[in-house]
């Protein structure tokens, strides 16, 4: 049975967690990476996740994307409860409903930009929606690079291909983990602009982990994590307001 049919009515959030707890290890090596996190990622919104190193940002992203099993609580993509899925269903959900952009571009070197973009759909046996793919290609400015292999592209162009690949299947949600970490600031700004454009013009949903207040300012909302908990959030952020919040927050941590 298709997984969508098994579950509850449509949710308004593209993804949500409640009481999401992730514990690694046991005994002396036990680490509570996420401690009962409640969070929603609104459909058609761009959310940044920030927090100090080790605060649980990547773990939250991996658990919400179905890349890592959760210890307790609930994680949903749309109306699908991830904990109810078997491995195979989870693989299918990730392929069909989730797009990923990583710091390393993760493109296949022997394939062209276009083939890389449409590879996940080719694997799934689905033919790409040509009008949609054309729109993405125009949005990320790759029209004259589609036949190039990754080695013939700059880092910024390779990341544009990775963004286009994440968008190509019109996923329910795109998770981006430090997508500009390997790029200079001008090229990084371009990629962030494309992510913002994909949310605002193409009505996609993006959740991005970042350390950079300038990158976070491209989002509609910033969620702050510390010690595996959500401790703050900011709407319509600017780089200054994010930095300011981080400073207040560091002050609180130092004095507590
Ligand atoms: N596979 C693992 N096994 C054991 N502990 C882990 C594992 N992955 C993460 N952790 C621990 O969980 C906590 C949260 O890690 P996580 O990588 O989510 O933090 P982060 O906020 O993404 O950090 P950074 O900004 O440095 O990437 C850390 O204490 C980390 O050491």
TrEMBL record:
<dbReference type="InterPro" id="IPR003439">
    <property type="entry name" value="ABC_transporter-like_ATP-bd"/>
</dbReference>
<keyword id="KW-0067">ATP-binding</keyword>
<dbReference type="GO" id="GO:0022857">
    <property type="term" value="F:transmembrane transporter activity"/>
</dbReference>
<keyword id="KW-0813">Transport</keyword>
<protein>
    <submittedName>
        <fullName>Putative ABC transport system ATP-binding protein</fullName>
    </submittedName>
</protein>
<dbReference type="Pfam" id="PF00005">
    <property type="entry name" value="ABC_tran"/>
</dbReference>
<dbReference type="InterPro" id="IPR027417">
    <property type="entry name" value="P-loop_NTPase"/>
</dbReference>
<dbReference type="GO" id="GO:0016887">
    <property type="term" value="F:ATP hydrolysis activity"/>
</dbReference>
<dbReference type="InterPro" id="IPR015854">
    <property type="entry name" value="ABC_transpr_LolD-like"/>
</dbReference>
<dbReference type="GO" id="GO:0005886">
    <property type="term" value="C:plasma membrane"/>
</dbReference>
<feature type="domain" description="ABC transporter">
    <location>
        <begin position="15"/>
        <end position="252"/>
    </location>
</feature>
<dbReference type="InterPro" id="IPR017871">
    <property type="entry name" value="ABC_transporter-like_CS"/>
</dbReference>
<dbReference type="InterPro" id="IPR017911">
    <property type="entry name" value="MacB-like_ATP-bd"/>
</dbReference>
<dbReference type="InterPro" id="IPR003593">
    <property type="entry name" value="AAA+_ATPase"/>
</dbReference>
<dbReference type="GO" id="GO:0005524">
    <property type="term" value="F:ATP binding"/>
</dbReference>
<keyword id="KW-0547">Nucleotide-binding</keyword>
<dbReference type="GO" id="GO:0098796">
    <property type="term" value="C:membrane protein complex"/>
</dbReference>
């Amino acid at each position: 049975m298709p997984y969508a049919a098994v579950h509850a009515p449509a949710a308004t959030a593209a993804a949500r967690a409640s009481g999401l707890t992730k514990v690694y290890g046991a005994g002396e090596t036990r680490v509570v990476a996420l401690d009962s996190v409640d969070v929603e990622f609104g459909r058609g919104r761009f959310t940044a996740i920030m927090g100090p190193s080790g605060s649980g940002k990547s773990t939250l992203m991996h658990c919400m994307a179905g890349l890592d099993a959760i210890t307790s609580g609930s994680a949903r993509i749309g109306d699908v409860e991830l904990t109810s899925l078997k491995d195979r269903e989870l693989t299918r959900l990730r392929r069909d409903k989730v797009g990923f952009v990583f710091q390393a571009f993760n493109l296949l070197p022997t394939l062209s930009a276009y083939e890389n973009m449409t590879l996940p759909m080719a694997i799934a046996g689905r033919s790409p929606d040509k009008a949609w793919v054309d729109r993405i290609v125009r949005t990320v400015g790759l029209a004259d690079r589609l036949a190039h292999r990754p080695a013939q592209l700059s880092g910024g162009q390779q990341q544009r291909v990775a963004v286009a690949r994440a968008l190509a299947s019109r996923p329910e949600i795109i998770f981006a983990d430090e997508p500009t970490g390997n790029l200079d600031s001008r090229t990084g700004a371009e990629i962030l602009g494309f992510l913002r454009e994909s949310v605002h013009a193409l009505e996609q949903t993006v959740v991005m982990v970042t350390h950079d207040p300038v990158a976070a300012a491209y989002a509609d909302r910033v969620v702050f994590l510390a010690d595996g908990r959500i401790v703050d959030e900011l709407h319509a952020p600017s780089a200054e307001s994010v930095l300011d919040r981080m400073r207040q927050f560091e002050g609180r941590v130092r004095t507590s």
